[in-house]
Amino acid sequence: MDRLCIVIPAYNEEKRIARTLEVYSSFFDRIKNKDLDYTLFVIINNTQDRTAEIVKSFANKNKHIKFVNLIKGGKGFAVMEGFKIAFKDKKNFDLIGFVDADLATPPEAFYDLVRNIKNYDGAIANRHIPSAIIEPKPSSLRKLASLGFISVVRALFFMPFSDTQCGAKLFKRKAIQELIQHQVQSNWAFDVNILYILHKKGFRIKEIPAHWRDIKDSKLKVGKVSIQMFLAVLQLRIINSSFRRILRPLKIFISPIWEAVK
């Protein structure tokens, strides 16, 4: 039997977390059989609203829903804490991944990762594969920002992935073990960082066509986020460069810009 843990980072998600837990638990309850046991592990991420209260009410009714309430913030930090706790859990999960709390990735799409991981060490959703389903079609500004970011990541890290940022990723236990041994960046470079670590260590990651919905009340502002993401990956490249001592002075210029766009 495969034991699956889906980490769901949740920061101020009182308007959306209930629907996400309803849809995900309903789907996995329907397909649950002797070959799959699932857990939805919500990482309540320094929240300021009723997210914790809502999640706790779901956990009291469904044994497949667990949660932890963190004091510190940051999506990357929350996901990595979820990975660490899930890895040590007595269930000894075979598959551990994460999905965004906004339901942009429906459970059917996440299950595609489970079905297709097979002999790979990881499976990640990719919105840029031709057969991917994106609802609605992204604006020209989003397409331009996405293509620009992909180009920067490929140029800096020499990775084959064409969508590092889609919020649906799944890994086998040995890949999670590798990740929790590293100090992973918790800012906008988080996704790039975990894929870079695994790619560098020779882990095999498969890209699966995403089914992704653009959520209307998304908190992201494309222009501001694009700058933050660029600065984050640039900093990550410096940290992982053999010339990091020479390049370290660049942080003097990066830090003020980062503070201005936070």
What's the gist of this structure?
The protein is an alpha/beta fold and 262 residues long.
Structure description:
The protein is of the alpha/beta class. The protein has a single domain (about 1-260), classed as Alpha-Beta Complex (Spore Coat Polysaccharide Biosynthesis Protein SpsA, Chain A), CATH 3.90.550. Helix content is about 45%, strand content about 20%. It has ten helices and nine strands. Helix 2 (about 50-60) links the parallel strand 2 (about 35-45) and strand 3. Helix 3 packs across helix 6 (about 175-180), helix 5 (about 140-155) packs parallel to helix 8 (about 220-240) and helix 8 (about 220-240) packs antiparallel against helix 10 (about 250-260). The radius of gyration is 18 Å and the shape is globular. Residues about 240-245 and about 255-260 have low confidence and may be disordered.
Write the topology of this structure:
Blueprint: E1 2-10, H1 17-31, E2 36-45, H2 51-61, E3 65-70, H3 75-88, E4 95-99, H4 107-117, E5 122-126, E6 133-135, H5 140-157, E7 168-172, H6 173-179, H7 190-200, E8 205-209, E9 211-213, H8 222-239, H9 244-247, H10 251-261
Parallel strand pairs: 1-2, 1-4, 2-3, 5-8, 6-9
Antiparallel strand pairs: 4-7, 5-7
Helix pairs in contact: 3-6, 5-8, 8-10
